[in-house]
Design brief:
Elements (H helix, E strand, L loop, with lengths): L5 H12 L3 H12 L14 E2 L8 E5 L7 E5 L5 H14 L4 H5 L17 H20 L1
Antiparallel strand pairs: 1-2, 2-3
Helix pairs in contact: 1-3, 2-3, 3-5
């Protein structure tokens, strides 16, 4: 069985505690908490995630394999995409590379959003995680 870092497990647990439309509200709350990019990081230098329905860019800094830093950029008018990015930021930023690589590729199904969000949008979250893992494997 693969595992999740404690921070990501906590996010999943938050989503499990709410039902129906409250899950969407929680996702929107996360969207509002997506950390801004550091001044030295430009969106142009980040990797696009074309699988997302809205423009999303990510940057994986694996210089320190014990404290991988993740940065995301998504427009304010794309709250679902921002919410997904914020979930990954909250759950995986500053975690060891091996812990991130151990996260199940479909962990997002445990958030219980499948009834509320289109499969196409959910694939965007899966694509973000896949790109992060690919970056870590090639770093």
């Amino acid at each position: 069985m693969s595992t999740m870092p404690a921070a990501l497990a906590e996010v999943v647990s938050e989503f499990r505690e709410v039902q129906g439309q409250d899950k969407l509200q929680l996702l929107l709350e996360y969207a509002g908490e997506l950390p801004p990019l550091p001044a030295e990081l430009q969106e142009a230098a980040m990797e696009p995630v074309p699988e997302c329905q809205s423009p999303l860019f990510l940057h994986v800094d694996a210089t320190d394999r014990e404290h991988v830093r993740l940065y995301f950029s998504a427009p304010e008018e794309a709250p679902t995409t921002r919410g997904f990015a914020a979930i990954l930021a909250a759950g995986l930023d500053d975690q060891p590379a091996d812990d991130i690589l151990a996260v199940p590729d479909d962990f997002y199904t445990e958030l219980g959003l499948a009834q509320l969000i289109s499969p196409l949008r959910l694939r965007g979250m899966s694509a973000m995680l896949a790109r992060i893992k690919r970056r870590l494997r090639s770093a």
